[in-house]
Design a protein that fits this description.
With about 240 residues, this protein is of the alpha/beta class. It contains seven helices and nine strands. The structure holds 6-phosphogluconic acid. Hydrolysis of 6-phosphogluconolactone to 6-phosphogluconate.
């Protein structure tokens, strides 16, 4: 696992954008395509906007295949949709071919949407292992990642797949790649910045508590090359 600490949000985003393009170009050079599972929430929006604005000619975007590590159980036109966020920040500005974008079908019931998304991923990888070239992840202030939330049954999945998650406190469903599927990735990058995440980062990196409390610990450094991108606030806490 590689821990990269930067002084501010812009440095974190610039570093991860350059890393994204490096990993993508390596995959395209090796096998003619690059598969990535995008993270949602607010942190990655600026990353996607930076990629669209500064890296349009640095990568053969027509060889990139976009998936989602998780999705909210809302229409693809809803303001909370991770797909809509990525569409506005990245896909539309770069005129990405819709055939290269694999959103979760949230018109289905959560369990059905999860099962169908798992089929979509299995079809993409054909008979090969379900190994994305890169999985981007965020970190919630309660140490969740993707939609692997504390004390939810999905934390106990043992086979790579996609599950539905019910969040009782919010009374909403999410659809998420589970930890075994994320851990199949060739590389995993966490994008974390902001003082509000410092405690979560500390728990995930420093505590060896029950994963029920800190689900991001499920993501195994030994499998992928995990790179933590976070600002100095989080790092400052780690030094205490
Ligand atoms: C989502 C994400 C989730 C996110 C974290 C951090 O759909 O919300 O996939 O795991 O990465 O909650 O979100 P912020 O970047 O908005 O803090």
């Amino acid at each position: 696992m590689e821990l990269n600490i930067f002084n501010n949000e812009n440095e974190v985003l610039a570093a991860l954008a350059a890393h994204f393009v490096k990993v993508a170009n390596e995959a395209i050079a090796a096998k003619g395509k690059f598969s990535v599972a995008l993270s949602g929430g607010s942190s990655p929006k600026k990353l996607y906007e930076l990629l669209a604005s500064d890296y349009e000619d640095k990568l053969e975007w027509d060889k990139v295949y976009f998936f989602f590590g998780d999705e909210r159980n809302v229409p693809q036109t809803d303001k909370d949709s991770n797909y809509l966020m990525a569409k506005n920040a990245l896909f539309a500005p770069l005129l990405i071919d819709p055939d290269h974008i694999f959103p979760v079908d949230t018109s289905l019931e959560p369990k059905e949407a999860a099962a169908k998304y798992q089929e979509v991923i299995e079809d993409f990888f054909d008979e090969d292992e379900l190994s994305f070239d890169l999985v981007l992840l965020g970190l919630g202030d309660n140490s969740h990642t993707a939609s692997l939330f504390p004390f939810t049954p999905v934390l106990h999945d043992r086979l790579p797949g996609v599950s539905e998650v019910f969040l009782p406190d919010q009374n909403v469903y999410r659809i998420t790649m589970n930890a075994p599927l994320i851990n199949e990735a060739k590389q995993i990058a966490f994008l974390v910045y902001g003082e509000g995440k410092a405690v979560a980062v500390h728990h995930v990196l420093e505590d060896d508590e029950d994963i029920e409390e800190y689900p991001a610990q499920l993501i195994e450094p030994i499998v992928g090359e995990i790179e933590w991108f976070m600002d100095i606030a989080a790092a400052a806490l780690l030094e205490n």
